[in-house]
Write the C-alpha cells for this entry.
Amino acid sequence: MTTYKRYDPLSADLPHTPMEYPDTYWWATANTAPSDDGKLSENIDTDVAIIGAGYTGLSCAYYLAKKYGVRVHVLEAHKLGWGCSGRNGSFMRPAIGRFLWSEYLKKYGLNQTRSLFQESFKALNTMKELIELGSIECDKQPDGWLRVAHNKNRWCVLEREYKVLQQYLGYKEVSLLSDAEVTAHGLGGTEAHGAIYYPHAFSAHPLKVAFGIAKMAREAGATIHTATPVTRWDQNYNQHRLITPHGVVNAKHVVIATNGYSTEKLHPSLKARLMPVLSSIVVTRPFSPDELIKAGFTTTNIVIDTRKLLNFYRLLPDGRILLGSRGSITESPKDDFRISNDLLNTIKYKFPKLNDVRADYHWSGWVALSFDSMPRVHSLKSHTGVSYAIGYNGSGTTASVYFGKLLAEHIGGGVQIPEVLGGPLSAFPFSRFRRVGQRLAFAAFKYQDKK
Ligand SMILES: Cc1cc2nc3c(=O)[nH]c(=O)nc-3n(C[C@H](O)[C@H](O)[C@H](O)COP(=O)(O)OP(=O)(O)OC[C@H]3O[C@@H](n4cnc5c(N)ncnc54)[C@H](O)[C@@H]3O)c2cc1C
C-alpha cells in the first residue's frame, strides 16, 4: 500500500526535486511554455537574485532589467509560473489584501483606506501595463466584476460597501444592482440577490500572463533558471550565497518572491510570519450557449459572492464554468476529493437548471495569509540586501506584479516603498497552532455562511 505524504509549506523542507506543471485547465490550454535558461549548472555572481518565478518575481525581474539595467537572475524550483501565478482564477481586480473597503475604513480610518484604495488601482494598472507592453496574448475577457449577495441577508453588506465606495472613496462608476437588474446583467440562479457592479477589472488566462512576463523579462536582459530550487541560503553581512543543486549564486541583493510556497526554512525573516492556505478550483465540461441561457449564467464578468469562505466564478471562453473557493486544509487525496465535490455541488446549487455538471479539471494551490490579512513589500533592516513581496491573502494577481515593480524601483532606483504597503510582516501569536486556528476559523466561517 502506498502512503500519501502530506505536503504543507508550514512544515516542509526547502524544495529539492523539480516538478512538472499540475494538470490544470490553464496548462492544458496554454500550448507550450516559452523558453527559459534551464537549470543553473555553474557558480555565478549577480546583483539581484530573485527566488520564485511567479508574477512577483517575474515582474520584479522585468522592471529591474528594463528600467535600471540591473544584472538579475531568477531562481525557480520548478517551472515558469508553476505556483499560484499559473493556477489562479485570473480575477484581475484593484485589490490589496482580503477585506472589503468598508472593513478597511473601520479598521484603519479614512486616510489609510484612501491610500490603499489608490494603491489597488496602481496594481490593476501595472497588470494592464505589462499585458500591453508585452502584447501578451492572454484571452482577456471584457472588463467588469460583480460582488453578488449569495442570500437575501447579505444585501445589507452590499449597501454598506456601496456607500463607502461612493461617498468615502469617490468611486462613482460602481452601481448597485437589484435582483432583477443582476439577472438582466446575465447572472441568475439561486444565489443572485443583488450585486455591486464594478467596471474596473478583467479576467484572462493566468499562465499565459506568466509566460508573457517571463518572455519580457528575458528580452530585457534577465536570466531565469527553472528546475533550480534554492536549498540553502548563507549570508555574510551584504554577501549572499544561495545554494542550488548544481550551482551557487553569489548575490548582493536577494528578493523573496515565494508567497504561499515559502517554507520557513528559506529565511529567518519568514519564521511564524505566514499562514499557507489551500485555494481550489474546478472547471466543468463546456456548456452550450442554450444551456447557459437556460441556467441564467451568461455574463462574462467575474463574480465573487458574499460568503466568508467566498466562491469566485466565471465563464471561460469555451463555455465552461470555473469556480473556486477555500475549504481544504491538506493536500491529501481525501480532502482533494471532498473539496472538488463541494465545488461541483456549489455550481449545481447556484445553477439548478444545468444538467450533467461534471469536473473536467480540478486543482489547488497554496496562497499566503498574513497575521493582519495585509500583504507586504519590504526591505529588511535586520538583514542587509534582503527584500520580500509577500502575503497577498489570496488576492494577489494584480498586487504581485505591482509589488514586484515597487521592489524593482526601490532596489534599482532607490524609490521609497509607499508607507501603507511597507514594513515587516507581523508574527502570528501561538504560531505552532496555526493549522488548529485555521480549522476553527473555517468551521466558524462555514456556519456564518449558512445564515
Ligand atoms: C486556486 C487559486 C486561485 C486564485 N485566484 C486568484 C484570483 O482570481 N485573483 C487574485 O487576485 N488572486 C488569486 N489567487 C492568488 C494569486 O494567484 C497569488 O496571490 C499570486 O499569483 C502570487 O504570485 P507570486 O509570484 O507571489 O507567488 P507564486 O506564483 O505562488 O510563485 C512562487 C514561486 O516560488 C517558487 N519557490 C518556492 N520556494 C522556492 C525555492 N526554495 N527555490 C526556488 N523557487 C521557490 C515556487 O515554486 C513558485 O513557483 C489564487 C490562488 C490560487 C491558488
